[in-house]
Amino acid sequence: MTIITSRFERRAGKGGNAESADRESTLGVARRLSARRSDRHRGEPWRDWAAIGLLNHAQMLAVALIAPSWPWLLLAALPLSLTFATGTLTILHDAGHRRFSRKTWPNVLATQTAIPLGFFVQHWTLKHRVHHRSSQVYPLDEATRNTTVRMHPGIERKPIHRYQHFYAWFLYAFAWVGELDSQITYVRKGNIIGLEVPPFRVRLGQWLFEKAFWALVISPYGILLGPGKFALYFMVAMSLGAVQAAIVLVVGHINEGLYAPDEQPAPKDWSKHLVATTASFNTGSLPMRWLTGGMTHHLAHHLKPVAPRHQLPQLHTTVVAKVVQASGLPHVEYPTLTSATISHYRRLKELGHSDGGPPVVTGPTAT
């Protein structure tokens, strides 16, 4: 992923002398800000792993020891849902980019211990690699193949989609069901488009190992609190967290002003493709950047996937600004997550009522 992006930037810099010098300056900033594959600022992901893991396990342990009544149990699921969502956007995402280590097992260890939600890290890493390689390209990017909520014009429009801007928010709570189905399908069929996958026996062994690891991490809480009460507490927190994480992710790609491509871009058009398919929000908020795992600077992340989160604001004002200017396209950026979510609502409505077409920019954008 990073190699493709860097190759494009080098090719793009071979234009006229003044333009070439300007782009070389931009590349210089990019090189200083972006981590090499041998040095991905390991301290940041492990620091966040410790903080988020402590928050999650402290909450689950407190609830297991106190054993509150049903109303208080459901109320206690609210703060856990927030740290679950933050962990998904941060720890799982870092693991998907191998930021904890080049080796597989530290990334699996970090995810299963800090956010024990049953993720299949080795499978998610492959899916995410395809997402960065073919962002929003139908049908390569798995996110574009959803048929219940029509998120891409490539999906056949059905009568039920006319109401998707109302019911999608409820379905986001069950994103974990879709994730589990994706895991099982991968184990059975090895369906990762464009990537070589391990044989069936290896996939099955990986999946069983990660599920056993996950069960080992959460089972003490179920024993202390009781299986029924803990299952309710855990699933409510997981479902509410799924809504929060899903919203942060979908507003970055399924929104007004963004294109929905159906073919892989040529290397020379790679950065332009990212500008056309990616939105950012709340770029000036440090708390929001931490809570969303840096997804506030979604375009900066796609341009430099392994850049640490603390470098995203500088990338946003340097590399992103230059790439947007060179693309000739508007940079879709929302001042708040709320405004981005409202615009996503309108995009869902548009996709439910029409077969798509060139994007119409009606939300707040920066050009």
Question: Explain this structure to me?
Answer:
With 367 residues, the chain is mainly alpha-helical. The chain has two domains: 2-33 and 263-353, no CATH class; 43-249, no CATH class. It has 15 helices and two strands. The chain has helices spanning 2-12, 17-33, 43-66, 70-96, 104-114, 121-133, 164-172, 175-189, 200-225, 227-250, 270-277, 286-291, 298-303, 312-327, 337-353, and strands at residues 280-281, 333-334. The chain is globular. Residues 72-333 form the Fatty acid desaturase domain. This is Fatty acid desaturase domain-containing protein. Keywords: Membrane, Transmembrane, Transmembrane helix.
Key terms:
single chain, 2 domains, two-stranded parallel ribbon, 367 residues, 1% strand, 63% helix, mainly alpha
What sort of overall outline do the alpha carbons produce when their principal axes are compared?
Answer: globular
Give me the count of strands.
2
DSSP summary: helix tally: 15
- Most strands sheet: 2 strands, parallel
Sheet/helix structural class: mainly alpha
Give the uncertain stretches in residue-range form. Answer: 1-39, 360-367
Mean pLDDT: 88
Report the sheet-strand fraction: under 5%
Give the count of structural domains. 2
The largest beta-sheet arranges its strands as: 1-2
What is the H-and-E element order? HHHHHHHHHHHEHHHEH
Helix content: 55-70%
Intertermini distance: 26 Å
| Rg over CA atoms | 21 Å
